[in-house]
């Protein structure tokens, strides 16, 4: 594994946990970029947002606007931006706006197969040179039938409200999941194995 500092352009606890489990040396600097985009395919949407996040953080770091948040930055490092959405029949389901939105989202996922897309942008910085790579991963997730009472009980846990698709597969929301096809970590929020290989390729090209 390449020993290089990673700057995670996200405050997501799930992404932090995944990077820590993989043994990466990283700091966290959440992006301040907006997430307003025109309607587009889910794969394009997550890659564009991931790039916006990574670019914004990279530019701030280079401008030395985050000295207090990113300490002892080495000459070479990687900024990692990521974004995850759930898609049902081509319709993007992000984080819920409110209680009713979360309920309606979970009700629509009941007894259905949906897709989870995570877009990732890696920006490799060495001195004044920058090289980037963007990609996405898709995982199919199938839910059991979920009753009205089960949704109400789940919403009472407050778990759904900061998660794309209004559920967390690594938490109580995992009880609704009948099966998945693809990368489990992608559903959590970061396709870690793909990140590892893309990162190795990006750095080895330099």
From TrEMBL:
Gene3D superfamilies: 3.90.950.10. Its EC number is 3.6.1.9. The keyword Lipoprotein does not apply. Its cofactor is a divalent metal cation. It holds the Pfam family Maf. InterPro entries: ITPase-like_fam, Maf-like. Its main location: cytoplasm. The record marks 14, 84, 170 as: Important for substrate specificity. Coiled coil: none annotated. The active site is at 83 (proton acceptor). It comes from the Bacteria. Keywords: Cytoplasm, Hydrolase, Nucleotide metabolism. One of its GO terms (molecular function) is hydrolase activity. The keyword Membrane does not apply. CDD domains: Maf. It is found in: Cytoplasm. It catalyses: UTP + H2O = UMP + diphosphate + H(+); dTTP + H2O = dTMP + diphosphate + H(+). Belongs to the Maf family. YhdE subfamily. NCBIfam families: maf. Nucleoside triphosphate pyrophosphatase that hydrolyzes dTTP and UTP. May have a dual role in cell division arrest and in preventing the incorporation of modified nucleotides into cellular nucleic acids. This is dTTP/UTP pyrophosphatase. It comes from Coprococcus aceti.
